[in-house]
Model the fold of this input.
Amino acid sequence: MLAAGTSLGPYRILAPLGAGGMGEVYRAHDARLGRDVAIKVLPPHLAATPETRARFEREARTISQLSHPHICTLFDVGREGDTDYLVMELLEGETLAHRLERGPLPVAEVLRLGGQVAEALDQAHRAGVVHRDLKPGNVMLTKSGAKLMDFGLARAAGLAPVAGGLTESPTVSRPLTAAGTIVGTFQYMAPEQLEGKEADARADIWALGCVLYEMTTGQRAFEGASQASLISAIMKDEPRPLAELQPLSPATLEHVVRVCLAKDPDQRWQAAADLARELRWVGESASQGGAVAAAATPRRQAAPLAWLPWAAAAALAVATALALTTGLFRQGAPKLPRLTLEIALPHGLRLMEVPAISPDGEWLVFAATDSTGTTRLWLRGMGGDEVRPLPGTEGDNTLMPFWSPDSRNIGFFSGGKLRRIPLEGGSPLAICDVQDSRGGSWGADDVILFAPDSKTGIFRVSASGGVPAAVTHADLSPGNTSHRFPWFLPDGRHFLYWREPTSQARPNEAGIWWASLDGAVQRRVCDATSAAAYADPGQLLYRYENALLARPFDPRSGRATGAPRAVIPARPIEPFQKLGSPTFSVSNRGVLTCEVGWTGRDRLYWYGRSGRPLGPASGLLPMCALVDVSPDARRALYVLDDPGGGGFRVWLVDLRSGLGTILTHGVTGWNGAAWSPDGREVYFQASTPGREEIHALTLEGSAAERTVYVPATSPNAALDGCTPDGKHLLVEGQGASGRGEMLLVPISGSGRPQRLVSGAFSTGGVGDVSPDGRLLAYATDETGRFELYITSFPVPRAPCRVSTEGCQNGFGRWTRGGREIVFVSPDNRVMAAEVPAGAEIQVRPPQELFRLPPDAHNISWTREGDRFLLALPGEPQPPQHLAVLLNWQRAEAK
Done:
């Protein structure tokens, strides 16, 4: 290793850049020309080998023949004492291999960068040079695009192959037989190379096909547990179709890669120029809306959430295709092919809701949380790649933005208010108060419709501010539903909204409804499991059983005029979105954006009371919706969404071994699981046809699952936990009057439930009884946000407020024998409030223990309050993606 300051001829070594089998690379300074360069030196112990020195000299001659914007430039060759070196262009950026560690690239980037590498290969092949070691580690990604590097194994066409037959590549830094790993050149070798046959330029085309596959899917085309199994896979197997791993990959790209990976060299692209031309054609066809099968329908993703620069090429394609789509369907123009484009969120942003596309189709606005944990609105133009925050929109995660009809203003919900902000930015204007928003829509007469919470109806208010007036009235008695997510129709007088389905809802009550602004008419349109949107000409969009459907619809009469068809088939969706919220957005021009799906796996980690990481507590697990630590802190309940769409499941995680197993197989509520005080039983919320139930399962022995409680009145019962004596459960729901209530339910099944607290609050604020059975902690959102309170138990008295700035998700738990209560603030601070012993109920001001990591999305803690269990991403997260669909009105989903 050369030390900084060492001179090689006129070059001064600054720092090492890397090392491989063919040499060490350093950053150096050329004082003559005043520039930094990259110097590759041949180590002395290799220089002593005549064959290796000859190969090093061949590399110099090879590279010196090549001059191309996507090939690393050779400046000089030198020798200092016994050290041979090359002086090359210093490339600022990262290797493709390093980039692929973060996941696959957007399709537009695959086409652009792949085409550049193909052009570089074409230049080399025309000069009689075959690279023979093309792989992601030998492609550098710079501001100017891809740069092909390291021709250490290249040879002039016609020279005999290196002696030794099938040997390990000199550029491989670790043996291929390392336990459990497959690395190095063999991953990208063509079959004829592995057979020891003469390899020509078509071997490079095979290698580029492998690289294109990996860029698109994030996975290698061929895998094996050993060198032998890998070679066997390359010789005999076919890689999985691109569309199985990347649903938005164009069918034409699949064709291009398949031809590259033909086992017979005569069946491949015969020249790199042909391959470059094909990649360019795929990209240009997409951006021009041409007749391409590339507009593949998104397919079901294999895994269940969470982040790359926006795909500028996809944005350009949308901008250019808008002119093609606008008005063509009204004019009876020839049918255009469906076109699906891909947009990825920038790194560090976590999407909270699907972006809302402006009516003119030129802007996307979305709520996202950045790397600091701050949630705000972000704006992105469809014709560019800039993403900018909207100052003044920082707040909670209920932003749910929507557009004014002229696309110049944005409505959103934050801090207990309905607000608006101009497109160009400025200070947001508060319009009116809300409690727990469920969507809004802006009409042509500057009227905004919105659902202020989950238990009232739809309200109207002037966009300039004023007193809201009810338009619909929700009846939350058993068998009825709440009203959510309005959508104005083109006439500005009628609108759509969604009524939430429940286990006790009467037939023909839930689904999409059509109503008038004056409240005079209401009509049920169809069943749906999400809110609806309307797109000209006459298309009703909504989700049903996780499929995105389009249905012919007359907005004037409010009637469906035809059968629904699938725009996107059923697949898993993000489980943390508000119930019924749309997973799509559509412009007046018919440009449709929708979420592609969510992926990701968690790992549970222990943290100390000061926020110091203590280490992992589990292996990789599917992404969770709830974690609850057992009383002995040896196990945890873990509620997660079934990737197959079968509902939520309860898992049991052993925090010593780190292994997780499925505990329940029936459908359960996302927040409904709790321990018995002795840790021998688990209680969970179970959904059965027509009703919600609470079941119990004994963990030891062979006792069968049993029913503990069947709610008689509440359609939305939610399990909070168990009392310290193990005799009662705390259950939240809504009574016959529609008011929120917390019940004390006997586990034995004998006796009537006792109402503990009730009021005008939403369900979801978790209750907990202190270990001594003297105090009850609970939360309500009567103030517009969840706040934590304590009161006496089992006979409540006047409550004492604990939180001062809100309580995230209404979740608080007792620790330290009932002398402390812990909760999380809305800005992700873990707070602890001391509760002194004594007859009088009192609580001291909460103190911050630590701030949650930005990517933590779940937390629980031990009964002693000494350790905290956090659910964090357990593996590098790919970017969240959106699909942009054009010409979908007449195309059928496959």
Observations:
- Residues 153-184, 287-334, 572-578 have pLDDT under 50 and may be disordered.
